[in-house]
From TrEMBL, chain A:
The keyword Phosphoprotein applies. SUPFAM superfamilies: DNA clamp. This is Cell cycle checkpoint control protein RAD9B. The lineage of its organism: Eukaryota, Metazoa, Chordata, Craniata, Vertebrata. PANTHER family: CELL CYCLE CHECKPOINT CONTROL PROTEIN RAD9B (PTHR15237:SF2), DNA REPAIR PROTEIN RAD9 (PTHR15237). Interacts with HUS1, HUS1B, RAD1, RAD9A and RAD17. The keyword Phosphoprotein applies. Keywords: Phosphoprotein. GO terms for biological process: cellular response to ionizing radiation; DNA repair; DNA replication checkpoint signaling; mitotic intra-S DNA damage checkpoint signaling. It comes from Pipistrellus kuhlii (Kuhl's pipistrelle). Belongs to the rad9 family. One of its GO terms (cellular component) is checkpoint clamp complex.
Length: 363, 255
């Protein structure tokens, strides 16, 4: 169960995290643990994942415990909220920061509700009861430290680059060499008067706080989630670190702060060799599809040696590539793709005890 | 066909950006005409646009520190290209802290107006930003549709010759009239001035208020002088002059 409290200025950061995650998806998991309160979000086509973990010292007070079920098993809070319910509570963050003296969040397991109380000036108290859906959070495990390319930059610089791209342009390309970094519009083959402007911006290595380029590469990803991350980083005044490799391998955007840790993992477009059989698909236009973040249902118990199944779904990106097929179950050895696993409750239990409780959920 | 120009002064860049934003509010797609000494933004009247047309002229020397152009041919030393006005204004808006801005006509797979900006970052190092704005070159045979519209031989200038202008709206429930008095009447350029016109007699034209609003909302550059010409029951013509930039806008009467 969860019980925590924060001050007005902390509410602002908390609200910004929610706003940033709302760019990823319409649903949010509230996932408390001994490490702190994690807010998680995954988009419907599994090409973007966001997680903001607030450490216990971020809050004025923070209490967390597992609840004990009727049959004696312990379970975490499996709480999924709709963004539509929670986003309006954290609107107008500047005025919240000024007016809110204390914000308390706690859960009521008997009613599947999260209660958010805002104690404002002049004795005003606002209470929001938000129903939640029982759902185990998804978590991405991505070894960002094994990436060849690591860049750390102040959010303001990235924000200046992003403003060049209009909302009609969904994807941006990041091209790096040891000498320079270029952020540019994702090019399409045929452009005409009705196409968008092609923009590019060069940033020199000296503008980065940390610059390591192990492999020259160009990766293309969705702008929308990057914007979400930028919103949040400006609130924390902390630099953003980007970990990435070759096209197809996800891009991790992270913020490491004393009191919190944010990670946004975005799938990038993978190069796929053009299908030689069809005469129309000449080499000029490479069929590209977004390589997906692998999702897995893990059944890990200490004695359980079953290999993790990982379902790697190659989902067509939003607009152009309509004829992609879903299938492909590949194993964990599929290099480079991050693994998503369900955060399970078994880690502290005795080996051999009850396996993961599967929760029925909607997809 | 060649065109390259450079703006090095922050105030000129700002002014040019504002003109471009104003054009973007008045026209979705417009024609850019480049001549050795002037730049024009032109919106020719069309049924799709509701008959509205716009003509904006800037003397290039007041904006550009460098300006080179070569037209289609020697006798026709002009360039006409069509572009989406908002693309240009948005690209210019990103040049807020620019050290220099260069614009040139390029052909990268297709014709573009390429805007290159040298931004100054906080660490005072330069950062290069480039925008390729797709354009369509307008062939010479269509140029005649894009000439400066003749100011019509209006019967009346300024609503009446006594300097009164009335703006009136009428609906079923209410009628509101705003009276402007003591406005000036510019001297008539026409030689066929109808002498028998009584100074008090009003000329009136009924126009779509949305088009009028669109014109007013687009104003980002405060004009030093504005002239309103009314051709009775036909159209209204606005001629705004701000220092060196002139903007003419025609709204036809409602049928």
């Amino acid at each position: 169960m969860l019980k925590c409290g924060m001050s007005g200025s902390q509410v602002k950061v908390f609200g910004k995290a929610i706003q940033a995650l709302s760019r990823v998806s319409d649903e949010l998991w509230l996932d408390p643990s001994e490490k702190g309160l994690a807010l998680r979000s995954v988009n419907s086509c599994r090409s973007a994942y966001g997680c903001v973990l607030f450490s216990p010292v971020f809050f004025q007070h923070y209490h967390w415990s597992t609840s004990v079920e009727v049959n004696g098993t312990k379970s975490n809070l499996n709480c999924k909220l709709g963004m539509k319910s929670i986003l309006p509570i954290f609107r107008c963050l500047n005025s919240l920061e000024r007016n809110v003296e204390m914000c308390k969040i706690f859960t009521r397991s008997d009613k599947s509700k999260v209660v958010i109380q805002l104690f404002c000036r002049h004795g005003i108290k606002k209470t929001h009861n938000v129903c939640f859906q029982e759902s185990q959070p998804l978590q991405v495990l991505f070894e960002k430290n094994t990436c060849s390319n690591i860049l750390m930059i102040q959010p303001r610089v990235l924000a200046e680059a992003i403003v060049l791209f209009t909302s009609s342009q969904e994807e941006v390309t990041l091209a790096v060499t040891p000498l320079e970094v270029c952020i540019k519009s994702s090019t399409e083959e045929s452009m005409d008067l009705n196409s968008s402007v092609y923009s590019e911006m060069f940033v020199g290595p000296h503008e980065f706080e940390f610059f390591q380029i192990g492999v020259d590469t160009e990766i293309t990803f969705c702008c929308k989630e990057l914007k979400g991350m930028l919103i949040f980083s400006e609130a924390t005044h902390a630099p953003i670190t980007m970990h990435f490799d070759f096209p197809g391998k996800p891009l991790a955007l992270s913020i490491d702060h004393m009191l919190l840790e944010a990670n946004f993992i975005l799938a990038t477009l993978a190069d796929e060799p053009s299908r030689a059989s069809s005469p129309q698909s000449l080499c000029l236009s490479q069929k590209r599809k977004r390589s997906d973040l692998a999702v897995s249902n893990s059944k890990v118990g200490k004695k359980d040696n079953k290999a993790m199944e990982s379902i790697s779904r190659k989902v067509a990106p939003r607009n152009l590539y309509a004829d992609e097929i879903l299938s492909n179950i590949s194993t964990l050895e599929n290099s480079g793709s991050p693994i998503m696993k369900r955060v399970n409750s078994d880690t502290e239990e005795e080996p051999g005890s009850s396996s993961l409780r599967k929760v029925k959920e909607k997809h | 066909m060649k065109f390259r120009a450079k703006i090095a002064d922050a105030a000129c860049l700002n002014h040019f950006t504002r003109v471009s934003c104003m054009v973007a509010k008045l026209a979705r797609t417009c024609t850019l005409r480049i001549r050795p000494h002037t730049l024009n933004f032109i919106l020719a009247d069309s049924a799709a646009g509701g008959g509205v047309s716009m003509w904006c002229e800037l003397p290039q020397e007041n904006f550009f520190s460098e300006f080179q152009m070569e037209g289609v041919s020697e006798e026709n030393n002009e360039i006409y290209v069509e572009l989406t006005a908002e693309n240009l204004s948005r690209a210019l808006k990103t040049a807020q802290n620019a050290r220099a801005l260069k614009v040139k006509l390029t052909n990268k797979h297709f014709p573009c107006l390429t805007v290159s900006i040298e931004l100054v970052s906080v660490s005072s190092s330069s950062r290069m930003v480039t925008h390729d704005i797709p354009v369509k070159v307008i062939p010479r045979k269509l140029w005649k549709n894009l000439q400066e519209p003749a100011v019509p031989d209006s019967d009346i200038i300024e609503a009446n010759l006594n300097g009164d202008l009335n703006l009136k709206i009428e609906s079923e429930l209410v009628s509101v009239t705003t009276h402007f008095k003591d406005l000036g009447n510019p001297p008539s350029a026409s030689e066929n001035e109808s002498e028998d016109r009584s100074p008090e007699q009003m000329a009136e034209v009924q126009v779509d208020i949305r088009k009028f609003l669109q014109f007013l909302a687009g104003q980002q550059v405060n004009p030093t002088r504005g002239i309103c010409n009314v051709v009775s029951h036909k159209m209204v013509h606005f001629d705004l002059l701000h220092e060196d930039v002139s903007l003419q806008y025609f709204i036809p009467a409602m049928s």
